[in-house]
Predict the structure.
Amino acid sequence: MTSERSWGLTPPVSTVLPTPQETQASNALLEELKRQGTFESAEETNTRKKVLADIQRIVDELVRRIAKQKYPRNPTLIRDARGEVFTYGSFCLGVYGPGSDIDTLVVAPRYRWLPKGAVTDLTPVEDAFVPIIKFEYWGISIDLIFSRIATLDQFPPHGQLKLSDNSYLRGLDDAELRSVNGTRVTNEILNLVPEQSTFRLALRAIKLWAQRRAIYANIVGFPGGVVWAMLVARVCQLYPKASSATIVAKFFHLIRKWPWPQPVMLKAMEEGPLNVRVWNPKVYRGDSFHLMPVITPAYPEMCSTFNITHSNKEVIQRELLRAGEIATKIMGGKLLWKDLFVKHSFFTQGYKYYLAIISTSKEDEAHKIWSGYIESKVRILVASLEKHHSIAIAHPFNKGFERRHRVQNEQQYEAVEDGSMAYIVKEDEKKDDAPANSETNGVKAEGEELAASNGQAASNAQPDSANPDAKSEPDDGKTGELKHDPWSNLLVYTTTHYIGLELAEGRCASYKDPYIADFQDQVSIAFLGKITNLAGAKSLDLSYQVNEFKDTCFGWDKYKDKPLSHLSSLSVQHVKSINLPDDVFDPGEVKPTRQPKKPGALANGAQRKRPAPNDGSLPPPKRPQSTNPASLPTPT
């Protein structure tokens, strides 16, 4: 009698088979996921396969061309020259949905080439942890990474190259090693789960939940798709016979109670042929600071959650608590699966005060580069903010809001930099706009100064009173020729990222739950040493954190290059919940409004004087003032 395979580092918690009720719950989960639109049509799946086949053909053509240049006298090598295309992430795991991108790895001797016309919206992200090229190929979004296989002069026939062989890692630099590991990790996850169909359905549910609750974004410090996959895989290992519904319900309780910073690992770490760094907090001090370590199961093992901050962790734990309560009621028949997938309330009920990080550019291509870089640094500002003694949580929203604006002069442009929505281009107007500013943006003022954040939002700015249709003055010595106005009809691109602030004195929940008290304090926020008085007596000076963040961004080598520094800028503004732009709310959501003052209350917390008695007698003596330290003004 053969013993059953052991999954993971520890014995299973339970090997009980699903009950009829649990099977029924899994069927209900599948139907709900279909209603939620997480499965794509067969036609779109076929399109993905055709795109991958086309990319494979292009890669083979590339390798043959390079081989012909390098070895013109070796016809056999040229004939058999080929590359290989692998996938990783959601497509490889089998949990992709409508509109999902395809994470693609190209391995080849050296270079890559793509035909003219097929690729649109290409944006290289060279400074990313894994250098990546983002583009669309016949309407399908592609995230492409590249690596050499330095130990092979020629690849075997398609389908026979197995990247699980550690010997293929020899000769790769760090970036290539991380690129190859994307596919290696994804394949290893699938090999380490007991039932792949159970794992896939449970992972689809967890991914949808994380996306709806806005805790799905590796770039701002929340788990990405691979991290959620590894966490679900670990639960599957501990409950190898369980249904998908049971895995989902167990997931929230198990991960919330996980004894962090004990790492989540799917298998024991293995020895490898390279003299490279692997995750080891006993050897590398930096690894010991990881708050929620989830370790990749392929050599060389790495921590995939190194960028989770204290604020991110607290938000995740709160969401796990909320979801666990809901999942328990679902399994008990008291709620439906749709209740688990309710959208977040980050903007509607989340916080009273937010920071808006606004990246601005005068050209579309420059903005793709600049806004992408700023997005990758938002978590640095979050980590800095949460060190402030008055901030309990700095909660970053998991995506930015892209907007386009049409301005007519420099004053309007500066208002847009500071957050004004007065010149935004409406959706029905965008189709009539040129794709980019051509001649308008060709004229750049030498030494143009970047707008500095002063902490005062300009959302109520009004269009300049100057007549935009007024004719320009004739150029000197050239009668009849008009001066070119670089600001006239300028299309401006912005991306705004929001951070919700919860103060240490109170509790401002990211959702309304019975476990978390509501936030009551009022604050004032300071930028660059200037206090913006909001309503309360307390102050919160964030000038140091904001300046440090801006110095980091402006210190980027590529920003110092003349074209980008003259085209792009950065602003950090405070925004009250009642002043949030309309486009952060979906139809049907209720925008926060100003709470009416209590009867008899005066501004700044002052109390209305008691009226003198009508009989002319003296009023009663004042009560002695409290000397409780809590009533003293907070030092700024």
User: Anything to note?
Assistant: The longest helix spans residues 42-70.
